[in-house]
Specification:
The protein starts with a strand and ends with a strand. It has no helices and 57 strands. The chain has about 775 residues and is mostly beta strands. Strands 1, 4, 5, 52, 55 and 57 form a six-stranded antiparallel sheet that branches.
Amino acid sequence: MGRASDTQHSFNAGELSNLLLGRQDLDKYGAGLYVCLNAIPLTQGAWTRRPGTAYLHQAKHHAKLSRLIPFQYSVTQTYMLEFGELYIRFFTSHGILTRTAQNITAMTKANPAVVTYSGSDTYANNDRVYISGCVGMTQVNNREFVVTNVNVGNNTFELYDTDGVAVNSTNYGTWSSAGTVAEIFEVTTAFDDLDLAQIRVTQSADTLYILHPDFPPQQLVRASALSWTLSDIVLTDGPYDALNATTTTLTPSAATGAGVTLTASAVTGINGGAGFASTDVGRLIRIREGSIWGYVEVTGWTSTTVVTVTVLSTLTNINAKVNWRMGIWSDTTGFPACGTFHDDRLILAGAATSPQRFDGSKTGVYTNFSPSATDGTVADDNAIALTLNSDDVNAIRWLVSDEKGLLVGTYRGEWQVRPSALNEALTPTNISAKPTTHHGSADAAPVSAGKAKLYIQRGGRKLREMAYVYEADGFLSPDMTLLSEHITAPSLDELAYQEQTQPVVWGVRGDGVLLGFSYEREQGVTAWHRHELGGQSDAAAAAIPVVESVAVVPAPDGTRDELYAIVQRYVNGGTKRYVEYMSKTWEYADAQEDAFHLDCGWTVVNSPAASTVTGLWHLEGETVSVYADGTSLPDEVVTNGTVTLGASYSVVTLGYSYNSDGQTLPLEGGAQDGSAQGKIRRISRVGFWMTDTLGLKYGKDADNLTEIIVRTWGDTYGVATPLFTGVVRKRFEGTYDKLGQVYWRCDGPFPGTVLAVMTQYEVSDDS
């Protein structure tokens, strides 16, 4: 029986697959983990607890899906948009956007509670409002309500909660003064909750272009914080289908004006031989007489051969014309499903009847897709159009601009679109598309990370990196899940990229698990990690909260990027959907009391210190963990949105606890005659290099853990134990087996960072 030692200095290969348990020859094996749960492998190599998620606001509808989409004008002007059924709501600076707040002058203790306010703005029944700042009746603060039974003359209304239940305030505190009420700002949309997954967006300054295959392209324009306008994009000309190749003619009743009748000589060549359809209303048609083009918009339908149009550009005369082109997008043919900006053009693609075609606007004029001037002249800045030339029909799933050209992802492969030379611009006559890889893309938007584009492969199980490789003079798409193929099952559905402070690609997994992929290509860091949020998603305690959507915007102070999520939870006997954001990753200079390692958490700062915490209605009826002034307190149950602690504290955070777990791969420290793999061994001692850590537990598996106690004789009783930095070595109650693994866990509200794990074990060379 020989003795050996092994040290794992880095964990930045993340959680690796079972298929690699015998691959100690891989470089990644030495930095890999068998379990990496609720922890982030840092670029520098350390394993650190992920920060908790802070509760921001409830989603508007608890029973229906919603989705997050970022809006970023600059680092300091950012919004997170909540898209739901028939609405958009806006979050900024860790708050929900509301109209002008009005002062509350009275609030009754009754069922339902009645609010009286002063101000010139009036409310309507079913408006959603936000109340804050009340003194006395603090139970209504920081909550969303539904306005009911409005009395405009008296400036009063009744309060109902968002489940439609009257708010019974008889057991609340007595309102004494202050408080404001403000209507939550919304923009109305036509999307229902089942449409949300197919929405794609691209942004230019204060305009967000919204694309969906079943709706005309739309634009959301921000004029100011409380002035947002959503409208269909009005295309001034184009894009168009191929030139009519049949003998069918179109005859206008007039060359100019509105209410013009356009009559076709036959249905041949129109909508595949079906003729005009009622769904052609809104469609453009380009018509040529001699060398001069005019164009019209269909405004009414009479029959398969007769429509009413408005002439947008003169048709020259009323003769029958055989040269015409139908608009490519309409309710008949579908609308673009994805888009991007490239070379100062808006590029759109993926309509149902032209799935392989993309169209680019005129340079700098994003609503004009005219293929030529009215005299037929084609200039370099005219619109571009191209259909990918492949053996089978492959719907375009995404478009991304790159310095090497326009990158296109389709169902069956990936393409590069560029001019003949890289220093030239795309023009109608200088454009070509070539396939680069043949993996195929899922119907999900990719993310840009550095110079690479990361996209989900068709089938939803693989994340691929599309990057230009100089040696190959082209793009390659290696599989980023090759060493961790298990981690994306059952599917990877949505991506978001967080660049600072640690670069992580976040993903929504089909079962609600939040996936993280630490990605720093220049340093060779590609590391997967899993995150199961604290709490539950239904009455079964083992059902974890379901992460349904993720997006990233810069934090309000601009020092980092923040991940936002829609989380489905089971709270107080019912299903809720909350908007939450991941708090700040722990750093060395942070104050201990500011650590945030609870989920769906809520922090209050009391001055002077206080024992009562309010504003916890999102956790009503729940048992929550408490972190106060840098120490852990016993769990509490939230009642009427309030928790009363046994003493007064200045900084208090409450929320759901979660386990942050790590486990090494089978150890390989060698034996007297070579490798230790496959030989019986027993770990006798283990050491941990830690920084700013409390509450670390260790053992042979998740069911046999011992806490490392770091309080010393010099620590002051009754004061929070300082975070520990240094090395500890402990006896390890291991068993004889052929693996030799170390398990550790942080399950309290404290920070935890492991820099290295050092093991000493006995190994049998006769096994």
